[in-house]
Write a sequence for this structure.
């Protein structure tokens, strides 16, 4: 049995040597990797926002995005709004839901004790996912994309589609807007002060609760956008964001967990490795495992990720 | 029980429960000069009580100092004033009760607190630290205030774009004080500003504090282990021992008090 499996693996490895010389296939997978990477990057950005401000990973981030994507579905397919308008409406709606959740389930817990909060977000993940399943049933639907699947640039099977360009563009626009928000506005200043030193931020008169609520709202809106980017390539069903969340976690960890630029870089690296490894080593069953493998390798070599800050404290 | 009125007074003889009652009665009769008035203040970390019902007050525009050994409860007293530790008793600022208010709301009433260890935002620039200090202000003079602090502490101006975490201990203390005063507070709380600093830097900082007090009339409450220096700038002093106020009086009188001299001045 084991030998059979090994033989098959070696056999496919032979084939992939052929594939390796196929330039068009490389390019095709590279474009797919960019497109996937952009969507992972956007959800990773949402994770990083919460991690930066609170010091914990919000495992419910994928579920909030899932809820957001279903809202996109409701606004676009059921209510007949243009898809771009539907996405904006869903981003606003999911931001409001996230503010409510932060207020009700997160704020009662002391912000400096991380473990209970992580458990709460895990609970929220299960609750939101099942609630979505109950409301919209466990059947698959298809979601329209904001970007067309036609390709302005094409070499054989390698197609650079508007969707890939749109996904990448959306992520860069989000990063740009976040940068301006953080660096140039008063609420951004408050957010960074809370991230930097919670107690000192309070001592400056910053209302930490509402600042964190704002962070949750922003993260949920970005998560919804990432869902709206990725789901059209897949099918809409209640577990669709869970897989995306795992790749996004990998992306965020790669980037260093507290760096927004790192999250984008991490997302692209995970997207590319995933698509290239799966194609050339024929590892489609191990697609999820590649994400974990990438995290392991990078974090072994560089424990703070690409751009994570090394915490130094003067005593 | 009013130290300002009575001068030296041992607090230990008085039952805590009576303290609150007495002070409230006194409050009605007199002392509108007392800007900050604390009665029967108790504070605890979990089950461990740190303050056992202390009374003290600070007059408007005054610099008061609390002396005490390690673990006496000096830091806890300041943390209680800004709502950062669970507190019982009464803290009145200009007659308004602060106990039970969240930290941010107390700060918005004009109480600035420079915590022990300075609490600067290490990954943000010097200038951003000062901007956060003025977070609750909406007036147009924030920029000119920043310019004023760059003039007072030139090293901050030179390093305005560097992360605060890269400054030396003394520079960070200057930044922490300037940042707190960016609030334009009516009451400034300082927790061990001399900790870990060279004596010359400490002296310079205290001179600046005294100048701010004289110019802006900011009421200040300083917690210090460097008793000699603190007594030289303060006009009123308290001595805290094991969570109880044991001495109070004008700073110049406490400076020559035998007990204070032996325990805190070391001669």
């Amino acid at each position: 049995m084991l030998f059979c499996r090994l033989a098959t693996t070696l056999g496919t490895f032979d084939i992939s040597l052929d594939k390796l010389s196929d330039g068009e296939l490389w390019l095709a997978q590279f474009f797919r990797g960019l497109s996937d990477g952009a969507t992972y990057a956007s959800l990773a950005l949402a994770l990083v926002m919460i991690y930066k401000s609170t010091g914990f990973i919000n495992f419910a981030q994928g579920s909030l995005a899932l809820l957001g994507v279903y809202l996109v579905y409701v606004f676009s397919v059921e209510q007949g709004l243009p898809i771009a308008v539907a996405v904006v409406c869903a981003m606003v709606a999911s931001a409001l839901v996230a503010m409510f959740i932060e207020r009700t389930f997160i704020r009662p817990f002391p912000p400096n004790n991380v473990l209970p909060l992580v458990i709460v977000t895990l609970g929220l993940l299960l609750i939101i996912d099942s609630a979505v399943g109950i409301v919209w049933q466990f059947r698959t639907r298809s979601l329209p994309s904001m970007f067309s699947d036609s390709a302005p640039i094409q070499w054989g099977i390698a197609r650079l589609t508007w969707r890939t360009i749109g996904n990448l563009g959306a992520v860069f626009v989000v990063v740009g807007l976040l940068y301006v928000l953080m660096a140039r506005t008063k609420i951004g200043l408050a957010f960074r002060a809370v991230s930097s030193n919670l107690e000192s931020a309070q001592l400056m008169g910053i209302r930490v609760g509402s600042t964190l609520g704002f962070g949750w709202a922003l993260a949920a809106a970005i998560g919804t956008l990432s869902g709206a980017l990725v789901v059209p390539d897949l099918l809409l069903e209640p577990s669709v964001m869970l897989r995306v969340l795992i790749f996004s976690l990998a992306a965020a960890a790669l980037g260093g967990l507290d760096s927004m630029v790192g999250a984008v870089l991490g997302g692209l690296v995970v997207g590319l490795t995933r698509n290239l490894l799966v194609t050339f080593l024929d590892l489609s069953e191990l697609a999820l495992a590649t994400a974990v493998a990438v995290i392991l390798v990078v974090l072994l070599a560089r424990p703070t990720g690409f751009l994570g800050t090394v915490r130094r404290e003067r005593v | 029980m009013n130290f300002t009125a009575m001068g030296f007074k041992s607090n230990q003889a008085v039952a805590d429960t009576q303290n609150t009652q007495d002070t409230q009665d006194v409050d009605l009769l007199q002392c509108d000069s007392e800007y900050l008035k604390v009665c029967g203040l108790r504070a605890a970390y979990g089950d461990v009580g740190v303050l056992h019902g202390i009374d003290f007050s600070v007059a408007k525009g005054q610099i008061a100092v609390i002396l005490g050994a390690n673990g006496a409860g000096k830091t806890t007293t300041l943390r209680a004033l800004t709502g950062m530790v669970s507190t019982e008793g009464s803290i009145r600022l200009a007659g308004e009760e602060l106990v039970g208010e969240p930290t941010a709301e107390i700060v918005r009433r004009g109480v600035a607190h420079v915590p022990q260890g300075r609490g600067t935002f290490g990954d943000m620039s010097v200038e951003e630290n000062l901007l956060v200090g003025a977070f609750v202000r909406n007036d147009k003079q924030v920029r000119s205030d920043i310019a004023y602090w760059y003039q007072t502490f030139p090293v901050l101006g030179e390093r305005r774009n560097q992360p605060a975490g890269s400054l030396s201990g003394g520079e960070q203390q200057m930044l922490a004080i300037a940042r707190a005063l960016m609030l334009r507070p009516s009451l400034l709380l300082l927790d061990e500003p001399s900790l870990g600093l060279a004596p010359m830097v400490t002296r310079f900082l205290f001179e600046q504090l005294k100048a701010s007090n004289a110019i802006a009339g900011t009421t200040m409450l300083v917690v210090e282990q460097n008793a000699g220096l603190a007594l030289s700038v303060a006009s009123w002093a308290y001595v805290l021992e094991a969570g109880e106020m044991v001495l109070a009086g004008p700073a110049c009188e406490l400076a020559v008090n035998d007990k204070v001299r032996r325990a805190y001045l070391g001669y």
Q: What stands out?
A: Chain A touches chain B at residues 186, 189-190, 192-193, 196-197, 199-208, 309, 312, 314 (CB under 8 Å).
